[in-house]
């Protein structure tokens, strides 16, 4: 798990992720402060892959009203293009599931773009099930879930 000292690396990867997919970003410097804040307040758990600058995952937890059990949501998962296909995404996902279990979660959820076939294949290989389509048909997102 990433700590406050890793905030710059996490922020650089998240910024790069946004830029790669033409999404808005406030920049790595602003994100670093936000990452530190999330870590400090326990709002997010960040995971880093491989050597410096390879990949990042962000987890958030919420409590399910009916059971009181935590549910883990994979907020972000990113591996830089030069390191894809080397098992870093799978390692991040396995770490995410381990951390979720350690925190008492019985379910992990995520959404991904319908067009991101590489990510979808990874999630499905790891036992995630696509439950529905959500959002605008032009920017279709898929909702995945996996019992832990």
Alpha-carbon Rg, integer: 15 Å
Low-confidence stretches: none
Q: How does the helix and strand content classify structurally? A: alpha+beta
Average pLDDT number: 94
Q: How many β-strand runs?
A: 6
**DSSP helical segment count:** 4
| Overall spatial form | globular
Q: What percent of residues are in strands?
A: 25-35%
- End-to-end separation in angstroms reads 19 Å
Strand line-up in the sheet with most strands? 1-2-3-4-6-5
Q: State the helicity in percent bands.
A: 25-40%
Descriptive report:
- The chain is an alpha+beta fold.
- 35% of the residues lie in helices and 30% in strands.
- The protein has helices at 7-20, 28-41, 88-102, 117-125, and strands at 45-49, 55-63, 70-79, 107-113, 129-134, 141-147.
- It has a six-stranded mixed sheet, with helices on both faces.
- α1 (7-20) crosses α2 (28-41).
- It is globular and about 40 Å long.
- The model has no long low-confidence stretch (mean pLDDT 94).
Give a short synopsis of this structure.
By secondary structure, the protein is of the alpha+beta class.
List the helices and strands and how they pair.
Layout: H1 7-20, H2 28-41, E1 45-49, E2 55-63, E3 70-79, H3 88-102, E4 107-113, H4 117-125, E5 129-134, E6 141-147
Parallel strand pairs: 3-4
Antiparallel strand pairs: 1-2, 2-3, 4-6, 5-6
Helix pairs in contact: 1-2
Q: Which keywords apply here?
A:
single chain; 148 residues; alpha+beta; 6-stranded mixed sheet; 4 helices; 6 strands; globular
